[in-house]
Structures are given as C-alpha cells and as structure tokens.
Design a protein that fits this description.
heteropentamer; A alpha/beta (272); B alpha/beta (313); C mainly alpha (268); B: 313 residues; alpha/beta; five-stranded mixed β-sheet; 43% helix; C: 268 residues; mainly alpha; MetI-like fold; 75% helix; binds adenosine-5'-triphosphate; binds magnesium ion
C-alpha cells in the first residue's frame, strides 16, 4: 500500500510582476511507500518546496493528482506534519506551547497540553528549554522544536523542507543522527527536501534528483547503505560522484540558458 | 420642594458683561438654573440651537445670525449693554473722539499705500459698533482701512503691544486692561450709530417657551433681578469678575464704567443691526420681520409689570 | 560616582534652560504677565494642586479634579478607539470583502483633521463630555486602525501555514496567530493614538466643558493668566508622558517574548 | 467588465452614505442648517471655488486663495520641521554626547500637545502667519525627529562596517551610509508629520489669521454656515490627501530600490 | 616575510545581559604567509568572525597583537578587503555603485567610477547586472558583488567570513571554483572562514581547525592537494575523515559541558 502518490503533477505559477506564466513543476510522478525516507534533491528554485506544499495541501497542482494514504489531498491537515524551511514557531509562545499548539487548537487544558508536550520535547532533546521563547533559541534548537511539533501530530507522513540548511556542520550532523533515530522509532513516512548531496545520502532510503526549473525527476536512486552511514566511505562517495555529475551537467545546461535570458530567478532574489 | 422644580440650562460666554450670569442660580426663584460657562458666544448659540441648553446669553448679532439661518430663536430679555471701546496703539497720536484727525490719518496712510490697520473680532458686537461708528463718520471699514480679524479678544492686547495693529475695537475687560498696561489709549466709545450700545441678549427657543413657560418666566425674573442688582451694587459684580477671571479688581472696576445693565430689548436698534449685517454680508436674507416678531416681550412685561413700550419696543 | 554624574548630566541642559528662562522673564524683555518665570509658574501650579493661597483663584486646589476629568475623557474616547480600531483593523486586514467595502470610506475620512470635526461634534453630541470623547476617539482611532491593518497584512504567512497544518479553523487562526502576530504593530498604533488622544482632549476642552486641564489652559489664556497656561501645559505633558509610559509597560508585558530580539525594543 | 465592477464596488458604500445623509438631512430630523445635505454643501463649495452666485458670501470665489494660504503655512512649518528634524535626528542618533545633552529636553517637550502652545505662540510670534507656522512646525517636528533617530539607531551596523572597511570618514559614513539607511524610517516620520501639519494649520487658523481653509471653517462655524463648515472639512481633507500622496510619490522615487522587497511597500 | 601575524590573541566580551565576561578567543597564534589561502574551520559561535574582525580592525584584541604586512592593525582600512557573512551591500545603490563604493568615497567622478567597476564586475561574472539593485539579486550574486567590491580595493589581504554559507550546493560549487581562479590570478593572501569541512578542503592551502568556545587552534593542517580538487577522491576523504573525527570529539566534549550549563549561546540565539 502506497503512502504518498504523486501522479503527473504540473504546477504553473502566475508571475504577476513580469506578467507571464512560470512552469515550476513539469509532469512529476513519484510514489513513496510507507516507512520510506525519500530525499528530494535539487538546486534553489527548482520547485522542491512547491512539491512539498502540494503534498501538505497548501498549494493545488495545476494538473495531476496527489493522494496520501489513498485519499486525495484537498487542504492542510493534521495527518501530515510539516517541518518548514524556517522553523515557523509562534514567537510569542514558549517552546512547550509551540510543541503543543495542535492541542491548544483542540481545546485541551493547560496541564494536559504541558504533559503531552514533554514527551516530544524529551524526544528531540530539549529538556530544560521548555519555557524559553523562540527568540532565545539557536537555529538548531528552533528546528528541533519544529520537529517535535510535527511529531506530536503523530502523523503518518512527515514533510521536511530543508530543515537543517541554516545549521552549522556540527549541529547538522547531530540533528541528522537524531532524525534517523526518530524515524526508525516512529515508523512513519518522511519526505525530506534538501540541496545538499551529503545530506540526501546520509538520510534517505531513496533520493530523487530533480532538474532545475521546471522541476522534473531526473533520476530516482535507491540507497541501501548501512546505517550509520560513513560519508568518507567508498560506496557513499560513488553515489556522491554520480549525483555530482548529474548536477554539474544540469548546471552547464542552465548556464547556457541563463546567457540567453539574464533575469535572476524571482525566488532567489527574495532570499537575498 | 426643590426636587420638583423645573430645571433650566443656561449658557453664557466669558466677558466682563456676560460673567454675572453666573449669579442667576442664586437669584432664581421657582426654577433651578444651571449656569454653563462657554468660551465664546458662538458656542453658546450652537449649544442652544442643537438643544443642548434651554436659555442662552448671546449678543444681538448672534440672534440675527440664527434667524438668518432659519433657527428657532426667541429673544426674551436684555442683559447688559455697552462694553465696546475703540483704542489706538502707542504710535498713533490722536486725541479722544478726534474723528477728523482719524479720517486725516486714514487718508494719509491710504495715500502712502500702507492703509491703517484696524482690528476687531469679526462678528462680535464690538465689530458692529465700530463699523457703525466708522460709517457714521464717513469711513468705509472695508475700503479705507485694512481690517484685521483677531477672533480671540485676549489676543488684542498683545497685537497692540507689538504694533501689529493701529486701531482696535475691543470688549471689556480687555479694553480696561489695555489701557492699564499702556498698550493702547482710549479713542472713543462707538455707540453713536444706529445699533447704539446694544450688546447682550437673552434668547431661548419657542419649544422651550411652549413646554416650560413658567420656567422661562422665572428665568427672565432672575435676569431682571440680576440687572437690578448690577445697577445697584457694582461691588458684587467686580467680585464675580475677579473670581472668574483673576483680573485685578481695579481693572474690573474700570471695565464696569463702560457697562450698562439693561433688561430692555431695543427693537429699533435691533433692526438697524440686522440691516447693517446684511450690508456687511454677514447674513444673506432680510430678517427684519423675523427679528421683530421674535422679540417676545411677554415675560418681561409679566416680570416687571411695565408695558412693552417701556421695554424697548 | 560616574553613574551619579551620568544622571546629572542629563539634567544639565533642562536646568540651564529653566535658569535662563527665569532670568529673561525677570529682566522684563517681555511683560512678565506674558512670560512668567518658572518660579511664578511653579507657585501657581502649587496652588492649583494644593490650594494654599488662592493664586490660582477659582482653580485653587482643583488640579486633581481637573486632571481626573481630562483623564476620564481620554480613557473613554481612547478605549472606544482602541477596541473598535483593533477589531475593524483585523477584519479589514483579513477579509478582502470587508476591505473592499469599508476601506474607501475610511480613506475618505482619514485625511480630515479631527480638530475640524469640532462644530459637528457639538451639534451631534451637545455639550459636556460627549463631544470631547468623540474627538478623542477620532484622533486615536485612525492610528490604531491603520497600524492594525498593517500588522495583520504583514503577519508572517508561514505562521498561518504552520497553524493550518495543525488543523486550525479560520477563527482559531485569527485568535491564535493573526492577532498575536499583529500585536507589535497594534501597540505602535496605540502609542501614536495616546498622543493624539491627549492633543484632542485639550482641543475639545476649548469648547463647553467645565473642568479639565485643557479647560483651565484655555480659560487662563482667555484671561491672560500665563502662569496657569504654562502650568496646564506642563500638567498635560506630564499626564501624557505617564499614560504613554503605562502603554509602554503594557506593551513590554504583552510583548515580553520580543525582548532583545530587536534593537527597537531597547529604544524609545 | 470585472475591472469596471471592482472600481464601482469601492464606490458603493461611500455613495450609499451620501444618499442616506441627503435623505436624513432633508427629512428634518435635525435643523437643515445644522446638517445641510450633500447637495447644499456641494453648491456652497462650488460657489466658494468658482464664485457663481454668492452662496458663500464673502468667501465666494476665494477658495484658491484660501487653499494657497493654508498650503503656504503648511509648507513653511513643515519644511522647517523636516529639515531640522532630520538633521537633529541624525545628530542624536549618531553622537552619544548630542543624545545625552539634547534628548532630555526633547523628551520633556514631546508629550506637550502642540495645540496647547497656541497661547505662547501668539505672544511670541504675534498674529498673522508666524504663530501658525510655529504650530505646524511643532506638530511635524517630533514625528520626523523620532523616526529619524529610530532610523539612524537601527541602521545596519554591518553596512557601516563595510563602508569603513573601504576607508570612509565619519562624515562620509553619515552622508553615504547612515542617511540613506535611515531614509525609509525618515519617510515614515514625514508621512505622520504631514498629517499633523494639516491638523495644526486648521487649529492655528482658529486664532488670528485672515485667510485659509481653517479660517473659513471657524468663521463659518461662527456664522452657523454649516454648509461651508463641511466644505472646508472636505477641502482640508482633500489637500491633506494630496500632500500625503505627494510625499508618497517622493518616497517611492527615493526608495525605488526597495520595490517589491517588502510587503509594506505595496500597501498604504 | 609574513603577511598576517596573530600573536597570543585573546578576546573577552562583556555579556551585558547575563552580566559576566565571556572568553571568546583564548591565546591564538597564527601566521599566514603571503599568497597563502588559510581556511578557519570551526562550529558556530567559536569565534571565527571575531578573529577575522580583529584582522580587519573592527575589534581590538583584549590581549596579544595583530600585524598585517608587518604593521600593527589599529582600525579598518582599504588595505584589507573584507567579504562579509551577509553580503552587506548598500541596498540603495545599484550593483556597479556598490562595487565602486570605495572610489565614491575617494571623490572620483561618475564616469571613472563606472569604468573602474566594470573590470571587477566582469571578473565575478556579473555582466548584465550592473544596474540591478541588491534586492533584485540572488544570494550568490550578492556575494559576488561583495567579492568584486573587496577586489576593487586591490588589497594585499582579503578576509572572507562564510561568504557562501547561504548558497545552494550547486551555486556554492561554482563560486568556489571562481574564487580559486581569482586568487590564483590576483596573487593575494586570503583568510577564509567556514564551518563546512568540504569547503575548507576544496579551497585552502592551510586549514586551521578551531575548538568550540573559547576558540583555540586545535590543529593547523597543510594541504597540498592538486587543483581542481576531487571531493570524492581518496586523499581528500582521508583529510575529511581526520577533521570530522576532531569535530566529533569536540562535539562530545561540548555536549558534556552543555549538560552542566543549559544556557544557549547568545549569538546563536540572535541568529534564530
Ligand atoms: N507563490 C508563488 N508565485 C509565483 N511563483 C512562485 C511562487 N512560489 C514559488 N514560485 C516560483 O516557483 C519556483 C519554485 O519555487 P520553490 O520555492 O518550490 O523552489 P525551491 O526548490 O523550494 O527553492 P529553494 O531551495 O530556494 O527553497 C521558483 O522559481 C519560484 O520563483
Ligand atoms: N559584540 C559582542 N558582544 C558580546 N559577545 C559577542 C560579541 N560578538 C561575538 N560575541 C560572542 O563571541 C562568541 C564568538 O562569536 P563569533 O561571531 O566570532 O562566532 P562565529 O564563529 O563567527 O560564529 P558563526 O559561525 O555563528 O558566525 C559568540 O559566543 C558570541 O556570542
Ligand atoms: Mg524551498
Ligand atoms: Mg561568524
């Protein structure tokens, strides 16, 4: 039984500033089995977040269909937990209230919320920070709160959008280990977006390499490396070399196109 | 029995002549008067026509203006007249009442291209008194001089002091204060014209008269009592001015020399004011008929026992 | 030692100004009645507050009553403005159809200075407190409204996404996400609003109220009591400062989670 | 079709209000003179502007002159406020010692509502234009000043570092980095200031000036010409709106580099 | 002749919020020869930026001395170009004005500035974007403008503070190649701060691995790998494994300390 199924997804955005249509996703079909860990690997602006948003229900595909657990997606819902590119914590709530936000919406009483949150706070290793506010947390800590918040929904599917991109190398390594441990324990399906080849190879059971705009699946790679994965090992570096070559080809092609049309990508601009 | 007495809200403005209205609650018999102090006669009138108060102390000019706008106002009593004085600034060498000298000066300044600067608060009784007196003496306030409007009489002293105006027609007690401080000198009392020395008037609305005739009559009675008292006893008046304004008692006493308590309502002068205001384009209709009709003498007659021919009609 | 000097240092210029003012106005360059020296002002103010020697005449000892009447007017008008401005602002910022129907009218009324409503305020609301409250309302309403709209419109879309990912309904979004997210901006509006509120109380007390700091100001002006004019100005400034401080306190309590995250929170 | 409807849709509520007003004031609930219907107001306004039938009496045909006098006062006071507010604001924001010496005085004066300076303005500056300009200055000065200080203090330290890496002197830093970095905040202050400027012109024209839209407002109130009162309110609103638009235009020209980078730049 | 010399540098910050002193740098001595490319590698908050700022002259060391080209550093100056962690472009100036900002300060006329800027704009491959504003640029482009700006100073020393941290994998690769090319052409000394092991190994002639707070030099590694460097190659991965082990040891030690004192680092908090 397939947990997530994307069928012939296309997505066209209206570029209001330049008054033209922008093809962001072009005919993507993907199936993610239950308990799999799929990494979507692609460069900036290739449509990774868009794809994830369509699974989450924040965006509707222009064409094609998305089903999760057999049911078509028609809006955001607590069955799919999402960890965002920025942690997106409510800055006015302390850590534990952020983790238990879902229960607040369901009208639980404070003491119950507090107790329920603690389990997930412990799981991501934030004991002692329950009453800190987001502004007092480091980037890595914020992302862990975001993960705890998604886990508390106890969803079948967790969607993660470059959650570790802003962390330094050491914190990133720690977090990756923790994530794998949680995934192994919770037995859920994860779709993880990243632009780091190392990260995709460290985490995934599958890696989907996407092309630059418009996003297509360039190659779907199954990984059966043993865990914990050795990023300096032979097998790992064979996969890495292969993927880097794919990317380099992509890059060359893109640069040829850019010469013809020197307008920077709108999305990259906004991030500057 | 105080509980079932009718209540009347009476508004009055801030000037030496108006202030004794604050004494009416004490003089009232058979009615409970709440005396409310406003910054300008204009606020009093607005409060009356918007039915926030029942009886108002305003000027004859306000009465005419309200009639022009079609408001329902009825005059029921006079109060105090006078209070206007024309003063000259320090640099102007004119003897009191030397109209010929003033005319010569005006002509001279006009020829020089810097017309004499004459100030008043536009639309006040003082404005009308001055314009009337000028006209009577062959001076056109619109053409021969440069008219400067200083709405707040408390600014008149400073304007004279600083030499921003040459001649001013102001109201008591500011006139006395200007004289006392040496900012200006007496020129004349501008009462020798059609409007005479008419200043203050007590008005109400016809609906108030219809619904509370007793209260209105009692109010008029208290005004009449007030006027009689002011005529007899200036000391109480001076006391009131001093209490409300903090003015020196000497200044207050000086101010009262130019005050004529008078509960009569002078019909002919009222009509003259209406005509003057129309000439000056302060109003747009001929309201003389209404002005005459809405002078309601019956309360005065009842209170004083005099016929209206003795009360200014 | 240095801390002591630091706090003194701040007082040097104001003190210098006071002394210069005392000297100038005692020198007789201007009539002393028109620019009374600080000591005279203080004396009149003292009598106004404590009523020891009738310098302030009718006002002697009535300061507290005056301050209270002004404060009540400010509180009423400002309260109405704050509540209605926040509610309407959230509605305009959130629902397109509310914006489309209400906003043009708002944009038409906003540039008309509140002071110029005085004539209408008197005929609509009569005398006494009501027109003053209306004017205060007008003055405070627009800053609160505009800032609330701004706050709602610039609320982080991602937080709204995060909440709807957790199954929030529209009402829950407004209450649990949009409102707290707009709060910093709302408070900015409230702080501009309180300044406007005091300004309009002073103006409104020009017409037909019987007490209040503004009333004393205009009354004293009318009768050239410049010592009391200055005492009223100082009183109003003081109360304005105090209420602004109150709102700042409220703000730092409500926005305590912001502490240190922005430079602004340390300033003003 | 839809575009046409969209622009109509915005006009629906204002039109409805106008029609309701016309009906209410013709129905005689209030004396028509106190709430003249829109058509009467328009008629008086028309005569004030074009002088066709003397409905506006002495004011007939003098609108342009009145608007000009008010505009000149606003321009003068606002201009002085803008220049001095920006310069002083930069100095306070940049040099600690300026802040320490000047700021306490500023903080003392700021909460005193500008309106309450009217009595002092008149004894200091006499009648005519000067006190009005002074009041306008007071109203606009503080918003500009406070926003400039804020802008300077929150200017990105890193940009200052980058410039001094390239050998910038202090004066160059102020001119080439701090000032442009504070510009968005300065413009925010300028926009609040222009609103205050109009408000204070109207108030100042209450006392001692001979022309201007505010003068007509108060004079018409004096003679119970509520049609002209409303026409003045609308005129002032219109000019206020226009000058705000002008500053917005200037702002979008000066801050064109911001285009699209923030959500706000698209709003109000 | 040594181009940059750090002698027994220590730096103590006053932590105003918690009212205590914070030892950021503890006795660091480093010598960077002329034309060398030193990479400072360390985790977030270990004092990398502080060290660089002291060379640039933005901060003064609490103890020890910094000399550049033999002269002690006593303030920022145009002899040391710096590329910042964020690009720090003047948002109100177009690309070419940003590049030529130094000449603007020197009072050059517009046409001359424009001409001088062009050379460096070409060098970093931004032809066609001369009149764009920073808000219209992608993160990678902004960083290139920052580099061009530093190069125009024609400094003996270029200081770079994690300039590529925010870029996606592909752009990062391109930029690294470009940087090496520029360095080889300009023959200048570069100090490059990073927290990515791969990046340090791809770029540097030397890598200084720093310890976590307080920052000390844990190990100084000379790299004589051939260029262009193969990040999947044997030699590269030997170095990588070695450095990763150093970092892992560090991490374990730090975690032990964190357990004892669960207060997040202030600097990380500000970045959240
Ligand atoms: N709401 C939108 N309207 C218009 N265009 C959009 C919108 N959202 C995304 N795009 C465009 O679609 C493309 C894909 O965007 P997306 O955010 O999915 O990229 P991404 O792969 O997540 O990039 P990054 O790694 O920078 O997060 C980009 O070119 C972007 O400009
Ligand atoms: N101005 C300052 N005042 C107080 N503490 C500071 C200051 N600047 C830096 N610090 C502290 O010094 C330490 C080192 O900071 P630094 O910015 O040098 O770290 P870094 O290695 O550059 O980190 P990152 O990788 O996050 O940029 C941090 O703990 C930081 O909190
Ligand atoms: Mg993305
Ligand atoms: Mg750093």
């Amino acid at each position: 039984m397939a947990s997530i199924e994307l069928k012939n997804i296309t997505k066209i955005f209206r570029d209001a500033k330049r008054k033209r249509d922008l093809l962001a996703i072009d005919d993507v079909s993907l199936t993610v089995e239950r308990n799999q860990f799929l990494c979507l690997l692609g460069s900036s602006g290739c449509g990774k977040s868009t794809l994830l948003n369509m699974i989450a229900g924040f965006e509707k595909p222009t064409g094609g269909s998305v089903t999760v657990g057999g049911k078509p997606v028609d809006g955001p819902g607590a069955d799919r937990g999402m960890v965002f590119q920025q942690a997106n914590l409510m800055p006015w709530l302390p850590v534990w209230e952020n983790v238990a936000f879902h229960l607040r919406l369901k009208g639980w009483r404070k003491a119950d919320r507090r107790a329920a949150a603690q389990e997930y706070i412990d799981m991501v290793g934030l004991q002692g920070f329950e009453n800190h506010y987001p502004a007092e947390l480091s980037g890595g800590m914020s992302q862990r709160v975001g993960i705890a918040r998604a886990l508390l929904l106890n969803p079948q599917v967790i969607l993660m959008d470059e959650p570790f991109a802003a962390l330094d190398a050491q914190t990133k390594m720690d977090m990756q280990e923790e994530l794998v441990a949680i995934w192994q324990k919770q037995r859920c399906t994860i779709v993880f977006v990243t632009h780091s080849v190392d990260e995709a190879l460290v985490l995934g059971t599958q890696v989907a390499v996407l092309t630059s705009r418009p996003g297509r699946v360039r190659e779907l790679i199954d990984l059966d490396l043993p865990r914990p994965r050795d990023i300096t090992g032979q097998q790992f570096n064979d996969h890495k070399r292969h993927i880097l070559n794919l990317i380099r080809e992509e890059g060359m092609q893109q640069r040829r196109e850019a010469k013809a049309d020197p307008v920077p990508a709108g999305r990259q601009g906004a991030a500057a | 029995q105080a509980a079932d007495m009718e209540e009347v809200k009476l508004g009055f403005a801030k000037c030496a002549h108006c202030l004794p209205m604050a004494l009416t609650p004490d003089l009232a018999k058979g009615v409970k008067i709440e005396a409310i102090n406003f910054n300008s006669g204009n606020d009093v009138l607005t409060a009356l026509v918007s039915k926030s108060i029942d009886v108002a102390q305003v000027t004859y000019l306000h009465y005419i203006t309200a009639l022009d706008k079609g408001f329902d106002v009825v005059a029921i009593s006079g109060q105090v007249n006078g209070g206007s004085e024309i003063l000259t600034a320090k640099g102007i060498e004119l003897k009191p009442d030397d109209w010929a000298g003033l005319k010569a000066l005006i002509a001279d300044r006009k020829a020089k291209g810097e017309p004499l600067r004459v100030a008043a608060s536009r639309g006040n009784a003082q404005d009308i008194h001055m314009r009337g007196a000028f006209l009577k003496n062959g001076i056109d306030a619109n053409k021969d001089v440069q008219f400067i409007n200083i709405p707040n009489p408390s600014d008149h002293a400073a304007a004279l002091q600083r030499g921003e105006v040459d001649v001013i027609c102001t109201v008591e007690p500011f006139a006395s204060q200007i004289r006392a401080s040496g900012a200006g000198r007496h020129f004349t009392l501008p009462y020798d014209q059609a409007a005479g020395n008419l200043t203050n008037l007590i008005v109400t609305r016809s609906d108030v008269i219809k619904e509370h005739p007793k209260a209105v009559e009692a109010t008029v009675a208290s005004v009449v009592a007030l006027v009689d008292r002011l005529k007899a006893d200036k000391a109480a008046w001076i006391e009131t001015i001093n209490k409300y304004t903090g003015m020196d008692k000497a200044v207050a006493a000086e101010a009262l020399k130019n005050a004529a308590p008078d509960y009569a309502m002078h019909k002919d002068s009222t009509l003259a004011i209406a005509a003057m205001m129309r000439d000056l384009k302060y109003i747009s209709h001929d309201v003389s008929a209404a002005a005459e009709k809405n002078l309601d003498y019956k309360f005065l007659e009842a209170v004083t026992g005099k016929p209206k021919s003795d009360l200014g009609f | 030692m240095t801390a002591l000097w630091k706090s003194w240092e701040r007082a040097v210029v104001p003190l210098f100004i006071l002394v210069a003012w005392e000297i100038v106005s005692r020198s007789g360059l201007l009539p002393a009645a028109l620019l009374p020296p600080p000591t005279v002002v203080l004396h009149a103010w003292g009598d106004w507050v404590f009523g020891f020697d009738e310098t302030a005449q009718g006002n002697s000892g009535r300061w507290l009553a005056d301050a209270l009447s002004s404060a009540v007017r400010v509180a009423a008008g400002y309260g109405i403005a704050a509540v209605s401005g926040i509610l309407l602002g959230i509605a305009i910022g959130w629902w397109r159809w509310v914006e489309r129907t209400v906003e043009p009218t708002i944009q038409m009324l906003r540039p008309v200075p509140p002071v110029s409503w005085i004539p209408l305020a008197i005929i609509w609301f009569g005398i006494a407190n009501k027109p003053a409250i209306f004017l205060v309302f007008l003055g405070a309403f627009f800053p609160v409204l505009m800032n609330t709209i701004h706050g709602v419109k610039t609320a982080d879309r991602n937080l709204i996404r995060a909440a709807s990912m957790m199954g929030a309904t529209e009402q829950q979004l407004l209450r649990h996400v949009v409102f707290p997210a707009a709060l910093p901006s709302i408070f900015a509006g409230l702080r501009i609003g309180i300044g406007a509120a005091w300004m309009l109380t002073v103006t409104a007390e020009m017409v037909a109220v019987k007490s209040g700091l503004g009333y004393v100001l205009w009354d004293s002006y009318y009768f050239l009591r410049y010592d009391l004019v200055l005492a009223s100005m100082a009183s109003i400034g003081l109360l304005g400062y105090a209420t602004d401080g109150l709102i700042k306190l409220l703000m730092s309590a409500a926005l305590h989670w912001q502490h240190g995250s922005t430079l602004q929170s340390r300033e003003g």
